[in-house]
Amino acid sequence: MSLVSAFVPIWILTAVGYAACRRGLLGEAAASVLGRFVFHLAMPSALFLTLSRMPLSGFAGRALLAFAVSTVAVVGSGWAGASRLFGRGPGERPVWGMAAGYVNSANLGIPIASQVLGDVSFLAEVVLLQVLVVAPVILVVLDRRRDPAGRVRVGRITSLPVRNPVILASLLGVACSAAGLHPPAVVDASLTLLAAAAVPTALVALGASLHRTAPSRAEPARPAELAAITALKLVAQPLVGYAAGLALHLSAPQVLAVVVCAGLPTAQNTFIFAQEYGVGEAVANRAVVVTTTLSLATLAAAAALLG
After folding, report:
1. Which of 109, 145, 170, 221 has the greatest number of CB atoms lying within 10 Å of its CB?
2. What pLDDT is stored for residue 101 in this prediction?
3. 142 CB burial (10 A radius; 0-12, 13-18, 19+)
4. Rg, C-alpha atoms of the chain
5. How far apart are CA 280 and CA 96, in angstroms?
6. Which ranges does the record mark as transmembrane (predicted)?
7. What is the pLDDT of residues 153-205, one digit of tens each?
């Protein structure tokens, strides 16, 4: 599979969602309904199956540390920059940071890792890092925003895994992997059907969100913001990963793996989270589209320079 063929389905499904919404085929609430379906049903199913089938041994610790450094640096920079440079409020900052540093490790990461790296073993570790560490942090902050006083309630935070299907499914998946448990065949088949709907439905919802039949009360994404997010995602994060890899004395193939994974575009989960919590949707959906479009060139350049 070529790099181009990995991107084409994403562009097509996003365009289908936009066209269907523009023609009124899905109704005005299409993006919201589809997004909630993905967040509450399809995405948890996909995460549970992925993590429950993923062995928890044999991690490339230093390589994953290099990727983690790039993620923390870029998400943190985006989080801070959203407030200081663009005046975004507390609820929008985590979405801004996620748009800058949360990579599309699923539907794009798998074919690209297979094409450029030859296997997806390191990508599996990236998936674990994102869904078990990065996503819960983002979700805790977004959940805190729902408290009228903005307070951190220990009881509310500790109960978040039970109340949030993404975190709950991830934890259950890891627990099943560690214990060597497998769901019954009928349950596995049902979850597989739901999981298969996660990526295409999220992309159709993303496309539908790009067409608004009614004015949005949220402040739109400004060109300068999109340029900053794109630069952080497609340039800064791979460069930080490269520097961290050199500092940790990684081998050339490990450095390539870190750079390619760090250079993946913004995950559509960013938009799904933003939509679920009703904040930063305009920034999230446009960041996904722009970085996905431009990352074909930046990933090809990285592969050529380091491969």
Report:
1. 170
2. 94
3. buried
4. 19
5. 7
6. 29-51, 63-82, 122-142, 162-181, 193-214, 226-248, 254-274, 286-306
7. 566 566 666 677 877 888 888 889 889 898 999 999 999 999 889 888 888 88
Identify the architecture of domain 3-306 in CATH: Up-down Bundle (1.20)
Sign of the CA dihedral running 287, 78, 236, 46 = negative
The confidence score (pLDDT) of residue 3 equals: 65
pTM for this entry:
0.77
Question: Measuring CA to CA, how many Å separate 202 from each of 20, 35, 117, 261?
Answer: 14, 6, 26, 21
- DSSP secondary structure of 184-245: -HHHHHHHHHHHHTHHHHHHHHHHHHT--SS--SSPPPPHHHHHHHHHIIIIIHHHHHHHHH
Torsion sign across C-alpha atoms 20, 22, 27, 32: positive
SS3 305: helix
What residues does each domain of the chain span? 3-306
Q: How far apart are CA 159 and CA 285, in angstroms?
A: 29
Which candidate, 10, 282, 276, places its Cα nearest to that of 167?
Answer: 276
Indicate the DSSP class of residue 266: B
In one-letter notation, the amino acid at residue 20 is A
Q: Which residue has tokens 């998936």?
A: 127
Give the type of residue at 23.
R
pLDDT tens column, 36-77: 898 889 888 988 888 888 777 656 689 999 999 999 999 999
Beta bridge partners of 266: 103
In angstroms, the CA 261 to CA 267 distance is: 12
Phi, psi of 266 (to 5 degrees): -60, 135
